[in-house]
Write a structure and sequence with these properties.
2 domains; alpha+beta; Single alpha-helices involved in coiled-coils or other helix-helix interfaces; five-stranded mixed β-sheet; 10 strands; ATP Synthase, domain 1; 43% strand; 2 helices; 136 residues; five-stranded antiparallel β-sheet
Amino acid sequence: MPNSFHLEIIATDRIFYQGECEHLVITALDGLLGIMAGHEPLVTVLPTGELKYMTGGVWHYAAISEGFIQVMPDKSIILADSCELPEEIDIKRAEEARQRAEERMRQKQSIQEYYQTQSALNRAINRLKVSQKHFR
């Protein structure tokens, strides 16, 4: 069995990564999901979280927002709203987004506005966490 598989990570604004991958670990709805070559077929929703993937024996990290993953034995495709390397994250902007979302959470909102605000808050917190954990 081969020790790598083809990985595509596609964000709404760019192809984030396309190439061989030895190991992928991503946040799924019910915890961390580890993927290696030969993995059983799977399609699942991805929440905002951290992903890491190994190429050439080196781990790479990214902050990813909501999306989907399709896993096949020889290929995995991730479609996400956004995906950023830790060094691409503007910490000041992410902190400001977190503060704005927290302020909006304190205000009376419709259910739809509440979920949108909660999603914005989750994205900002995730970006800060990934950036501080892997870059600085």
